[in-house]
Every structure is written in C-alpha cells, then in structure tokens.
Amino acid sequence: xxxxxxxxxxxxxxxxxxxxxxxxxxxxxxxxxxxxxxxxxxxxxxxxxxxxxxxxxxxxxxxxxxxxxxxxxxxxxxxxxxxxxxxxxxxxxxxxxxxxxxxxxxxxxxxxxxxxxxxxxx
Length: 122
Fold this sequence. Notes:
By secondary structure, the chain is an alpha/beta fold. It has one domain (about 5-120): Rossmann fold (3-Layer(aba) Sandwich).
C-alpha cells in the first residue's frame, strides 16, 4: 500500500512497538527514536515523509523537536503528528504553535492513527 517512511518518537518502548506494528502492517517503513535528540540524528541521516512524536519526553520533548524540524530548511516540510496522554489544557495549542499539523490524544485507536497519517501524507 505504501512505501512512505515514518519516524516515530516516544520515550515509551511499548508505544513505539505498538505504533510500529500498526504502521508496518500497512506497509509503512518505520524508524523509531526514544527521544527528540535521537530523532534529530535520524532526521539528519535519512529522509522521512512524516513524524509521529510524543509531546512529553526527556532530553528533548515533542514540541522542541517540532520547532527544530520546522526551523530547518531541509526538514520544514515534513508533517508532524503530536500524540500525548497529557491533560494539560494548553498542550494542543503548544503543539500547533510548535509546528505540528495534527494532534492525537492517548489512548488512540489504530484506525484514528492511520486516518490522521493518511491525511498528512496527501
């Protein structure tokens, strides 16, 4: 179905494994990173068609990662989906102001994740 390359960033290895399973079953090529700093390293080495990142992570959170991506001329066009379990009222606003195009609250379903991903890849 797809040969699109997706970078998934989350400090929870179980979430990374879950998202990777969901996406690879739909033929997406998936790379994972446990934090924003590792994600930046991957982004400097490889091309990705979209990024799915957790908002709250150690070292570099999802909003800092999104800002870094959007401020880099080579990366700025990569769409970013922010996922989070945070109940903080400003999280959605922060996510959009940092450059994310869509927001997905945890817990999420496979179908909602895939629908949002298909939307940003069009």
